[in-house]
Design brief:
InterPro entries: ATP-grasp, ATP-grasp_RimK-type, ATP_grasp_subdomain_1, Cya_phycin_syn, Cyanophycin_syn_N, Folylpolyglutamate_synth_CS, Mur-like_cat_sf, Mur_ligase_C. Keywords: ATP-binding, Ligase, Nucleotide-binding. Helix 3 crosses helix 4 and helix 22 packs antiparallel against helix 23. Helices cover about 35% and strands about 20% of the residues. The chain is elongated, with a radius of gyration of 36 Å. An eleven-stranded mixed β-sheet has the order 24-23-22-25-21-26-27-28-29-30-31, with helices on both faces. It has a seven-stranded mixed β-sheet with strand order 36-35-34-37-33-32-38, sandwiched between helices.
């Protein structure tokens, strides 16, 4: 039994609305074996992992999984539950798991939930699944024993978002603001497009870089604040030991020595009174230090966010209290046993590590046994990173102290600042600075990107939601950080609908981001060329700060292999669902395909719009799916048949649909009909000869109108859409001498049938030649179905295999298609070519004056380059040559350029 591959689903997916990992598990020799077939397996497994006794499984109650074990279940199912239990043991609070067949005996997909904020590049999920496989195998072999998970637990904790980051994520999600974490960093992207904001813990994209640099240099901070009349302890910088000792002599003890550019309390030494102590602190701090008078009083941190004091805490340095029996080491061990304490910043408190020099100043060592009640200080500073604890005092802050802290943050230009103060009490005003008088209380430090843990989980007092304060500062007035978003899926027409929708939205002045099968575009310009229909491409658009609206083509592959690239859309469009990609990724039937496509419908936000094709029976079923919740969305139908019962009923209830009637494109709402434009004015529809293009236009208009595009603007922009420029390769027509060339990306039976029907309407059934390639990753029966469609529609065809064989051998696909075509139409004339260039050239040579050559491609660029080389003219510049109208005496550019003559083709009598 082994895991063959893993894939991470980052966002909502076909299994659940949260991230998950999918493992392809092959059972090997355990295929067909169940737990009841292995003597003692259940008992040994429960001894190894007692927590499995609480797993519900299908029974819906504790003990359900144990019942399945004893009754007999397959080992893929067991591995799923073991991985969930191991996750719990290392602190990953996940509960969802599912095991489904991968389409062949002994092969399963294990779907296991991941924590929503876990790093998207984490190796922990995969390691846990492999650990689960090893554990199950060891139990089968008769071995038991507690699994060793300490390394995995430590890695999971290191990679997890810290408390400060988690608080910002949680606050954003409560507001409905989309939030993405970058890798295993604390860097967050909140919102989309031009409403996108960045936060890195308690620092935002609005935090002043100058302010950060000032706060990072304690001497510059001292000077700036002192000159502004802020009470600060007397002292200054020292880069030599002589300077440091001079400050001690001038100030008298006790003094504080701290690194000039230090952070988190590292190498800060307090209560220094002798030259020897100052020298040791100077060396430890890196010999570039601040020496200042130590102020009496209590240690406070005040958090300022966007001109508001949002939290305050008293910080208590790390210490233990003696009991008269235990050593300091033993007392520290007890303190560190608190589950709230961890390494670094991963938990709300940090583990305590005693400072030997501080113990020495207290005449103690780690092995000393302090008297009962004696407080032993383990760190000089009140930083949580050195093990300190905090008490919330937000409600006690004196107004004058608040004003002081706001002044300090403003002086440094920081939107978020942690102000450290030494005061007799936070409820008393800090005394003003008096010339010639010693400062006894005031500000001791300013922190950019301050830690939030002390406010989120104080040991005493109320927790403060400082993450929410930061999010409110980034998104005032209740903004959710979203931009208008359209998601488009289906089998055919997705790219055309996406491009036309983006074209319509751009008229309103919006800078539109667009993802399609061919590329990613921002404001009409290509920024990335690839099949861009997955979540990474969606994130590219949604993360672009210049984008004001997003149109996202969303395909099957991305949905299954990576999940969605967004949580919710405003508008979801389903064009149609027909046979394609069956046999891939576990999709066996059209129903399976519909289930995957339904995710786009399910993730339309409440109050959003779902645009559905009324002519497609599978799309019509979307409104009946439980997770679509059509009652909470606005459904808009589109279609070519105005008499579809679902449309008639929908309009009778006052709904909206986009339809055709008597040569017009209509918007129908209830009994009202509004003509938008004539069918003949829809670009690329060839006067209605391409009804599938009309359907695409209806879908795009419905989507644009749902996002607020005006009726007149939509009508005008549809007519202005230039398919040859904005939708190249989707039904694009060229003139090449006395022959027309029709270029289309039709790769499945439905698409080929629609395209060939269009050509028959324009040129007639006997005027079509096809240069055809079919994708090798389709199942044989789908390739055969495509071949049969073509054989029914043409008498002359040139077949070629694309460069990307997709797992097939050279010539395999074209041979299969040719065999099917000849079986379907014995009189068919077929030629097999080596590549696209040869196929198109051969098809042009076969073509007669007045014919049309259909070019079905895999990569568009080589086709366009060849046609340009041959002198082809886009149909926008020359009308198509229709039967009986072709200038038969005109020599074909293909013939003249290549130096070949047209030759009679056996079986063709055109």
């Amino acid at each position: 039994m082994k895991i063959e591959r893993l894939r991470h689903l980052r966002g909502p997916n076909v299994y659940l609305s949260r991230p998950a990992v999918v493992a392809r598990l092959r059972l090997g020799e355990l295929t067909g074996v169940e737990t009841s077939d292995v003597t003692g397996f259940t008992e040994r497994l429960l001894r190894t992992l007692p927590g499995l006794a609480e797993h519900h499984c299908a029974a819906g109650a504790p003990g359900g999984f144990v019942s399945r074990l004893r009754g007999g279940t397959y080992f893929g199912h067991v591995t799923e539950h073991v991985s969930l239990e191991l996750s719990q043991l290392i602190g990953r609070d996940v509960s969802f798991g599912r095991t489904v067949s991968a389409g062949e005996p002994g092969c399963y997909d294990l779907i296991v939930e991941c924590p929503v904020d876990e790093s998207p590049v984490s190796r922990v999920p995969g390691e846990l699944l492999r650990e689960a496989v090893d554990l199950v195998l060891s139990v089968i072999d008769g071995r038991t024993g507690k699994p060793v998970l300490s390394e995995l637990a430590a890695r999971a904790e290191r990679e997890a978002a810290g408390p400060s980051t988690r608080s910002i994520i949680a606050a954003a999600r409560r507001r409905g603001i989309p939030v993405e974490r970058y890798d295993d960093l604390s860097l967050l992207r909140l919102g989309w497009g031009n409403r996108r904001r960045l936060a890195w813990a308690a620092m935002t994209d609005q935090t002043s870089g100058v302010g950060i640099d000032i706060a990072g240099d304690k001497q510059v901070t001292r000077r700036l604040l002192t000159e502004a009349g802020v009470p600060m302890p007397e002292g200054g910088a020292a880069r030599t030991l002589e300077n440091a000792l001079a400050w001690l002599k001038r100030l008298g003890g006790p003094v504080v020595v701290k690194p000039r550019r230090g952070s988190q309390g590292e190498h800060v030494a307090l209560n220094l009174c002798t030259p020897e102590q100052v020298e040791a602190a100077f060396r430890a701090a890196g010999e570039d230090v601040i020496v200042e008078r130590q102020l009496d009083g209590r240690d406070y941190r005040v958090l300022v966010v966007a001109g508001e004091v949002v939290a305050a805490a008293e910080r208590i340095a790390a210490h233990v209290v003696g009991d008269g029996r235990s050593t300091i080491d033993e007392l520290v061990e007890r303190v560190n046993a608190d589950p709230r304490r961890g390494v670094g910043h991963s938990r709300v408190l940090t583990r305590v590590t005693p400072v030997p020099a501080l113990l020495e100043r207290q005449n103690l060592t780690a092995r000393s046994v302090p008297a009962a009640g004696r407080r032993v200080w383990l760190a000089d500073t009140g930083n949580l990173s050195t093990g300190a604890t905090s008490h919330d005092v937000t409600d006690d802050v004196h107004p004058e102290v608040k004003r002081l802290c706001l002044r300090v943050a403003a002086q440094l230009g920081l939107d978020i600042a942690g102000i450290d103060l030494r005061l007799p009490g936070i409820g008393e005003p800090a005394p003003p600075v008096e010339a010639g008088s010693e400062v006894r209380a005031g500000v001791i430090e300013v922190n950019a990107m301050p830690g939030l843990r002390m406010h989120l989980a104080p040991v005493r007092g109320r927790s403060r939601d400082v993450g929410d304060a930061i999010v409110r500062a980034m998104y005032p007035a209740g903004s959710d950080g979203r931009i208008p978003t359209v998601a488009i899926t289906g089998t055919n027409g997705k790219t055309t609908v996406a491009r036309m929708t983006a074209h319509l939205l751009a008229d309103s002045g919006l800078r539109v981001g667009l993802t399609t099968t061919d590329d990613v575009r921002v404001d009409g310009r290509v920024i990335f060329r690839a099949d861009a229909t997955g979540p990474l491409s969606a994130q590219m658009v949604l993360g672009d700060p210049g984008v004001q609206a997003a149109v996202l083509e969303t395909a099957r592959g991305g949905l299954l292999n990576r999940g969605l690239g967004y949580d919710w859309s405003d508008v979801g469009v389903l064009t149609n669902i027909t046979a394609d990609h069956l046999g891939q990724d576990g999709l066996a039937t059209i129903e399976d395909l519909a289930h995957v496509k339904a995710l786009v419908a399910e993730r339309v936000r409440d109050g959003g719009t779902l645009v559905l094709n009324a002519d497609d029976p599978w799309v019509r079923t979307m409104v009946d799916r439980p997770r679509v919740r059509a009652d909470r969305k606005r459904v808009v139908w589109f279609g070519l048949d105005a008499e579809q019962p679902v449309v008639v009923e929908h309009l009778a209830r006052g709904g909206t649909a986009y339809l055709l009637d008597d040569g017009w494109v209509l918007q129908a709402t209830g009994a009202r009909r509004t003509a938008l434009l004539r069918v003949g004015d829809v670009p690329g529809a060839y006067g209605g000869a391409a009804p599938h293009v009309l359907a695409n236009a209806l879908a795009a208009m419905a989507a644009a109108r749902a996002l607020g595009a005006g009726q007149e603007a939509v009508s005008r922009r549809v007519a202005e859409f230039d398919p040859t420029v904005e939708n190249a390769g989707r039904g694009t027509l060229f003139r090449l001498g006395d022959v027309s060339v029709f270029v289309d990306y039709a790769h499945n039976p439905a698409a080929l049938a629609a395209t060939l029907r269009t050509l028959h309407r324009l040129w007639g059934a006997d005027r079509c030649v096809a240069a055809l390639t079919l994708p090798g990753d389709r199942r044989d029966d789908l390739i055969a179905a495509c071949a049969q469609v073509v054989a029914d529609a043409v008498t002359r065809v040139v077949l070629y295999d694309d460069e990307d064989l997709r797992g097939r051998t050279p010539g395999e696909v074209s041979a299969l298609a040719e065999r099917e075509m000849r079986a379907r139409r014995p009189g068919l004339s077929s030629v097999r070519a080596g590549d696209c260039r040869e196929a198109v050239t051969e098809a042009l040579l076969i073509a007669r004056p007045g014919d049309v050559v259909l070019v079905v491609y895999e990569k568009l660029a080589p086709v366009l380059a060849l046609l340009a080389e041959l002198g082809a003219v886009p149909a926008a510049e020359a009308a198509p040559v229709l039967p009986g109208r072709g200038p038969g005496a005109v020599q074909s550019p293909a013939r003249s350029l290549l130096g070949k003559e047209r030759v009679p083709v056996p079986g063709y009598h055109g």
